[in-house]
Amino acid sequence: MSPGRPLPPGRPPIEPTQVIRRDGNNPPPLAWSQAPNSPTRPRATPFEHGGEPPRRHGGEPPGGYGGEPPERHRGEPTHAPTQRPVPYREPPPPPPAQPRRSARPPREPRAPRARRKRHRGRWLLILLLVVILLPVAGVIYLDRSLHRIDALSSYSDRVGQTAGTNWLLTGSDTRVGLTPEQERELSTGGSSDAGGDRSDTIMLVHIPKSGAPTVVSLPRDSYVSIPGVGKDKLNAAFSAGGPKLLVQTVEIATGLRIDHFAEIGFGGFAGMVDALGGIDMCLPDPIDDPKAGINLPAGCQHLSGSQALGFVRTRATPRADLDRMNNQRLFLSALLEKATSAGTLVNPLKVWPLARDVASSLQVDKGDHIWDLARLGWALRGKTVATTVPIGGFTDETGSGNVLLWDRDRASRFFDALAHDRAVPDDLLTR
Prior knowledge:
InterPro entries: LytR/CpsA/Psr_CW_biosynth, LytR_CpsA_psr. With 431 residues, the protein is an alpha+beta fold.
């Protein structure tokens, strides 16, 4: 508004502006944010040194304080700021309060501990080792339980290697290990009655590379040449020289090389049958043989170990030794069928006693093992060709008694087919 112009009504008069000059020694003005907190003494004005302040219209000193300078508040800066003040920002509002729950919240499932995982893995490893090592330990134990003998030793002019695999199985009348009570139970007679061990059963098993195995019964009364003895019954070779001479005699008579040998006695045979829980057999005719300790009716029946031993030993039948060989083949088939059945193999309470009794009852060659016997049993579990060597007739020989003669021509063709791993022609089979 220009000077001299009248003021509007009701508006106070304009006060003169007071200018304060800085001295050269005073510091520059501070910003509000840099102002000290301690009270600052106001600078002296020209009015404090005797000067008179200018008067407003009406004679009053400026400010309306009656000539007294206005009193400043403590801590209030005495000069204007040179920087813009920092704007004030209000803090964010607090979050809304959560409603109180009357029930406890469900607990979160705990994470599985690493230690528990380690323990579980350790137990799985132990279980795996047991599953693997236990059968291995059992096989080693059974293999060491076998009684080994030198049955397949080499000799001059021995038969060369033939095709397939050939086993010689014998059942001897040895009573080694039997108590007097067991001898009476099995009706084997005393050791003094035996007059030396003899082979009651002689079987040749040929396992081809392909096809069904052939089980050949060799009659113990077969009249053959025995090295170092001469012509005599086949079982005389066992009495004279044991398994080694028997193997040599069979190889010379048949032209087949024997690869494995196994022998079982009276006690071992009965124990093996009892370990299986007995064998079911069907008899076409009754058999009553006090010497063998059996009195069996005709028809299907369950045979215990002692009854089975009497059944494969008896000759109280119309064809005597020929019927006995046929009974032995039938019983061997029934025995292997039950031994290799699923009910036996998957049942540790059956398979372990059976394997233990078989291993402890057998005599094998020093080169044979328990897994060789397992392969033999597995090969015979199915279809087999069971027969007898072709027979030519019977005759009496001085010093030997009644002997059995082979049909040389047919027997030669029979064993030649086995030597070349071929099926035996039907016209050479004897059922």
